[in-house]
Design goal:
The protein is about 5% helix and about 40% strand. It is built from one helix and twelve strands, in the order ββββββββββαββ. The protein has a five-stranded mixed β-sheet with strand order 1-4-11-6-9, with no helix packed on it. Strands 2, 3, 5, 10 and 12 form a five-stranded mixed β-sheet that branches. Strands 7-8 form a two-stranded antiparallel sheet. The longest helix has 4 residues. The radius of gyration is 14 Å and the shape is globular.
Length: about 120
């Protein structure tokens, strides 16, 4: 799957930061690099068609058992912030997407979701 990349934006220490958003890729998913940690995901359901669910892949194994993926429900007009930390929980440990968090957006409002990442 060729996920759409969400670029991590630095937050200004003065003057504020205007975030640039990416539409949720409802066909291929999205990904964001969490190298160095302290990356936050901004999820905004800015439409009127229904709730959306953003599911973060969690590739971590604990004693050979898979950690459940994290599903974030976002209602119409709602904004959710998620800290993608610790990176070991969310980041892909190997392969072409090493060090990235991969995610899928579903639900009736999935086409209305905008995503941004910052640190």
């Amino acid at each position: 799957m060729a996920e759409t990349t969400i670029n991590v934006q630095p937050v200004a220490t003065n003057g504020g930061t205007e975030l640039t958003f990416v539409n949720a890729d409802t066909s291929n998913g999205n990904k964001v690099s969490v190298g160095g940690g302290d990356v936050f995901l901004y999820i905004w359901n800015n439409g009127s068609t229904g709730q959306a669910i953003v599911t973060l892949d969690t590739p971590l194994l604990v004693n050979g058992l898979a950690v459940a993926n994290v599903a974030i429900t976002v209602e119409i007009g709602e904004i959710k912030l998620v800290r993608l930390s610790p990176p070991e929980l969310y980041a892909q440990p190997s392969g072409a997407d090493i060090g990235t968090v991969t995610m899928a957006t579903t639900g009736t409002g999935n086409g209305d979701v905008d995503l941004a990442a910052f640190k």
